[in-house]
Amino acid sequence: MVILLYFFSSLFIVLGFLMLFTYRQTKRWEFILLSFVYAGSGVAAGASLQWWPLMAGFVTAWLLKFAGYDPDKIVQQQQAAREQAQSASESKPGQ
Protein backbone atom coordinates (compact mmCIF):
# COMPACT_ATOMS: atom_id res chain seq x y z
CA MET A 1 0.00 0.00 0.00
CA VAL A 2 2.90 2.35 0.71
CA ILE A 3 4.27 1.78 -2.78
CA LEU A 4 0.93 2.81 -4.26
CA LEU A 5 0.90 5.95 -2.12
CA TYR A 6 4.44 6.84 -3.21
CA PHE A 7 3.48 6.24 -6.84
CA PHE A 8 0.50 8.58 -6.74
CA SER A 9 2.31 11.23 -4.73
CA SER A 10 5.21 11.21 -7.20
CA LEU A 11 2.69 11.40 -10.03
CA PHE A 12 1.19 14.52 -8.48
CA ILE A 13 4.65 16.05 -8.04
CA VAL A 14 5.55 15.38 -11.68
CA LEU A 15 2.20 16.84 -12.77
CA GLY A 16 2.98 19.97 -10.75
CA PHE A 17 6.38 20.37 -12.42
CA LEU A 18 4.88 19.83 -15.86
CA MET A 19 2.42 22.62 -15.16
CA LEU A 20 5.32 24.90 -14.20
CA PHE A 21 7.03 24.14 -17.52
CA THR A 22 3.75 24.82 -19.31
CA TYR A 23 3.55 28.17 -17.53
CA ARG A 24 6.94 29.13 -18.98
CA GLN A 25 5.53 28.66 -22.49
CA THR A 26 2.04 30.09 -22.08
CA LYS A 27 2.43 32.68 -19.27
CA ARG A 28 -1.01 31.69 -17.90
CA TRP A 29 -0.94 32.19 -14.12
CA GLU A 30 -3.59 29.51 -13.63
CA PHE A 31 -0.89 26.91 -14.30
CA ILE A 32 1.16 28.19 -11.36
CA LEU A 33 -1.85 27.96 -9.06
CA LEU A 34 -2.68 24.40 -10.12
CA SER A 35 1.00 23.48 -10.00
CA PHE A 36 1.28 24.47 -6.35
CA VAL A 37 -1.88 22.54 -5.52
CA TYR A 38 -0.76 19.32 -7.19
CA ALA A 39 2.89 19.42 -6.13
CA GLY A 40 2.04 20.48 -2.58
CA SER A 41 -0.44 17.68 -2.11
CA GLY A 42 2.03 15.17 -3.54
CA VAL A 43 4.79 16.29 -1.19
CA ALA A 44 2.44 16.31 1.79
CA ALA A 45 1.20 12.80 1.01
CA GLY A 46 4.71 11.45 0.50
CA ALA A 47 6.03 13.01 3.68
CA SER A 48 3.14 11.99 5.93
CA LEU A 49 2.36 8.62 4.29
CA GLN A 50 -1.34 9.48 4.33
CA TRP A 51 -3.75 9.36 1.39
CA TRP A 52 -5.92 12.34 2.33
CA PRO A 53 -3.52 15.06 1.04
CA LEU A 54 -3.83 13.54 -2.43
CA MET A 55 -7.62 13.59 -2.24
CA ALA A 56 -7.62 17.13 -0.86
CA GLY A 57 -5.32 18.31 -3.65
CA PHE A 58 -7.44 16.63 -6.30
CA VAL A 59 -10.67 18.11 -4.93
CA THR A 60 -9.05 21.56 -4.60
CA ALA A 61 -7.84 21.43 -8.21
CA TRP A 62 -11.32 20.51 -9.44
CA LEU A 63 -12.91 23.24 -7.35
CA LEU A 64 -10.49 25.73 -8.90
CA LYS A 65 -11.42 24.47 -12.36
CA PHE A 66 -15.13 24.80 -11.60
CA ALA A 67 -14.52 28.31 -10.25
CA GLY A 68 -13.12 29.37 -13.63
CA TYR A 69 -9.38 29.00 -13.11
CA ASP A 70 -9.10 26.42 -15.88
CA PRO A 71 -6.56 27.46 -18.55
CA ASP A 72 -8.22 25.24 -21.16
CA LYS A 73 -11.50 27.09 -20.77
CA ILE A 74 -9.84 30.40 -21.68
CA VAL A 75 -8.18 28.90 -24.75
CA GLN A 76 -11.50 27.46 -25.93
CA GLN A 77 -13.19 30.85 -25.47
CA GLN A 78 -10.47 32.56 -27.50
CA GLN A 79 -10.79 30.00 -30.30
CA ALA A 80 -14.58 30.40 -30.37
CA ALA A 81 -14.23 34.20 -30.56
CA ARG A 82 -11.71 33.87 -33.41
CA GLU A 83 -13.99 31.53 -35.32
CA GLN A 84 -16.96 33.80 -34.77
CA ALA A 85 -15.01 36.84 -35.99
CA GLN A 86 -13.79 34.91 -39.02
CA SER A 87 -17.29 33.72 -39.94
CA ALA A 88 -18.64 37.27 -39.46
CA SER A 89 -16.01 38.70 -41.79
CA GLU A 90 -16.71 36.04 -44.43
CA SER A 91 -20.46 36.65 -44.36
CA LYS A 92 -20.28 40.44 -44.86
CA PRO A 93 -22.03 41.46 -48.08
CA GLY A 94 -20.21 43.55 -50.65
CA GLN A 95 -16.80 42.04 -50.29
Which characteristics define this entry?
95 residues, 0% strand, mainly alpha
Description:
- The protein has 95 residues and is mostly helical.
- It has one domain.
- 84% of the residues lie in helices and 0% in strands.
- The chain has 4 helices and no strands.
- The longest helix has 25 residues.
Summarize the SSE layout with pairings:
Layout: H1 2-26, H2 29-48, H3 52-66, H4 71-90
Helix pairs in contact: 1-2, 2-3
Summarize the structure.
The protein is mainly alpha-helical and 95 residues long. 84% of the residues lie in helices and 0% in strands. The radius of gyration is 19 Å and the shape is elongated.
Number of domains: 1
Give the termini distance in whole angstroms.
68 Å
Which percent range describes the beta-strand content? under 5%
- Average pLDDT confidence is 85
Subunit organisation of the chains: single chain
- What share of residues is helical? over 70%
Shape: elongated
What count of helical segments does DSSP give? Answer: 4
Low-pLDDT segments? none
Total number of beta strands: 0
N-to-C SSE string, H for helix and E for strand: HHHH
Q: Which value, in Å, is the CA radius of gyration?
A: 19 Å
Q: Pairing-aware structural class of the strands and helices?
A: mainly alpha
The largest β sheet comes out as: none
